[in-house]
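Example with several molecule types.
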Amino acid sequence: MTHVIQVDDLRTYIKTERGVVKAVDGVSFSVDEKEVLGVVGESGCGKSITALSIMQLLPDRFASIESGSINYIPRDGNASIDIARLNPKSREMRSIRGKEISMIFQEPMTSLNPVYTVGEQIIESLLLHEKMNKKEAMMRAVELLKHVGIPDPELRVREYPHQMSGGMRQRVMIAIALSCNPRFLIADEPTTALDVTIQAQILDLMKRLQQEHDMSIMMITHNMGVVGLMCDRVLVMYLGRVVEEAKVREIFKSPLHPYTLGLLNSIPKLNPKERKKDRLIPIAGNVPDPSEIVTGCRFAPRCPRAFDKCQEEPPLIEVETGHKVRCWLHE
Amino acid sequence: MNEQKIITSLDDNNVLLSVSGLKKYYPITGGLFKTHVNDVKAVDGISFAIKKGETLGLVGESGCGKSTAGRTILHLNKPTAGDIKFNLDGQMVDVNQRSIKRLRRHMQIVFQDPYSSLDPRMRVDEIIEEPLKAYGMKKDERKKRVAELLEAVGLGKSHMKRFPHEFSGGQRQRIGIARALALKPSLVICDEPVSALDVSVQAQVINLLKDLQDQFGLTYLFIAHDLSVVQYVSDRIAVMYLGKIVEIASSAELFLEPKHPYTEALLSAIPLPAVDYDREQIILEGDVPSPANPPSGCHFHTRCPYRQEICSQKEPSLQNINDGHQVACHFARELSLAAAPVISAI
Ligand SMILES: Nc1ncnc2c1ncn2[C@@H]1O[C@H](COP(=O)(O)OP(=O)(O)O)[C@@H](O)[C@H]1O
Ligand SMILES: Nc1ncnc2c1ncn2[C@@H]1O[C@H](COP(=O)(O)OP(=O)(O)O)[C@@H](O)[C@H]1O
Ligand code: SF4
Ligand SMILES: [Mg+2]
Ligand SMILES: [Mg+2]
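Resulting structure tokens for the full complex:
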């Protein structure tokens, strides 16, 4: 398998009033060609900051990549490029961002510009990356809107974002992200703000486009259901670290990390026949404040199986081919 | 009028709340003189009853009128039309502008975002004490009750003197619940109480709500959009679409034998935390239409995979299909719809 992206020991820190938050603290993973990699974990575990690091879209006044590498492997067999070393504003980074790697966000309204029409926003990246004139780009924009399932694209292309529903705006974001045929799409909670029937539409669309375009996707979500529906492999993150990595089937059939197990047990199962019988098994406590320094296993304060050894931090160990876990129970 | 008949068939003694023909329209004004041009029909003639001690789930996509229904029942919004009756010591009392003052202590609400509903300048004990004060409880009694409530919702005495911002989302929701329970209500309307929480904390709060229900014999109207959560907490479930109830049934029956095409689609759209399960996803076309301009006939006909000619012409009424199973679809008896996908083994 050829990788599209290879992240090694990435550390992205954020300076806050209360001290430095190690939002991403030694994260390594890779994404294969045509693979959908899920990244799950509760809010604040570093999913978005990982994604923004890859895009070099960190809020630069107070967040920065401290160390590690993010290698993008181009499709033509050229040497890989370490994004972590590029200046976010450099020409090289701009030729990757939006063209090779694109991103869509949870709330399209915050990333769409309210004063430009949808069409104007789609052609922006076409004009930047492709050799097209304005008229050609506008025609392509209409095609793209059609491609992502927007009815009456010739009319819709002239509308403003606020004239559209949440689902339609997410389709527009997807159209923009796909405009230059990227190899790698990062989707940060793309359906979290949507209703379940609209979520089903968008996930269905993403799946179809992923296959048609032979894209790789990094699917960030807190919803294990979305993982089950969309992903081939999954990373589970907790407090800036990867605690488990496995094929999706493995995660559901034999989760190893107590945090993964805790997440799965917290979800109410659909079990209409015997609803009263099972009680949910939550994880104790809350995700700690990120500025609190935790030594040892970061999950230990909430872990039902913590023991002496957990005062030391366990390494991420591959226990079976492709199944890695960071826990002393699985040395 | 059909709808109202159904309601009276429930045994009144067991009914805590009954709602019939409830409407809430928000006027849309336009033009230079702000004249009334149209209405958002947020809640458009809903009828249901909740039995003592049960949990009725209310589901549907955003904008279908769930919150408006909850708030209107409590007269936090003035109803446009309809009857609301509350069982006070065996008497069905009309809930109206006048009686609500007296009834409010028996009917409380918990909101989705506890942060916006808690006064940031007040300490936790003051927040919980406030409704007790309003009802003239003496100081030492109040202190005792506050301590009891904090314990009931799983917060310690050490939390009493802190401000809301010092708490996590889950803890703030516990504070909101404690305040709602302060006056020993019998009905609690929970408006998306766990939607903003992370799953591990969501499970804590769901368990808490269940424990409190057992402990104090509470009755819940549980509003949510997450069907797995609703299925888990509810005895019966009502499904709303564009201001109307399209189906009500016991939780099990709704998931195993849905009779409305919209319910079927909602169930099939739930992403399950599993691989290899049987499912054929029904992907509905289009967006939810605007409640200011709902489609003619059956409001769902623009997205319904089973629509026929009559569906755009005539509005189906909510009818009894089975004992306690009500559906508003012209073809409810004919269609054979798919049950919710189930994970066979985990
Ligand atoms: N703009 C920001 N300012 C301060 N802290 C931030 C900012 N963005 C993220 N963080 C912190 O970085 C950590 C990781 O955040 P994030 O990657 O957004 O988490 P996730 O996407 O998994 O919910 C959290 O502790 C969060 O509080
Ligand atoms: N105060 C209000 N004024 C005008 N329209 C409102 C108001 N509150 C809600 N609405 C509208 O009423 C409809 C139902 O809203 P709501 O009850 O909040 O739905 P839900 O809780 O199911 O998401 C929506 O179209 C919403 O925009
Ligand atoms: S009445 Fe017609 S349009 Fe409405 S749900 Fe039934 S079949 Fe579909
Ligand atoms: Mg995020
Ligand atoms: Mg609501």
